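Quick start: read one record
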Amino acid sequence: MQKKFDIEVDCANCAAKIETAIRELPGVNACSVSFMTQKLLLDADDAKFNDVLKAAVKCAKKVEPDFEIEL
């Protein structure tokens, strides 16, 4: 399943770090974080999508505590 979310990230460097960290999570097939468009594109297994999304948000907040995602 692939879904796009509106996010709030403060800089391009943080967006790149968040993208790299999320890609390493188990269950993630692909991930793209765009600072310019403030979008997160997450592709993960259908059965585990909600768990993967929660892990992705937790992971992103470790990189940037101000990270916000609109569900």
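Residues 15 and 33 are 6 Å apart (CA to CA).
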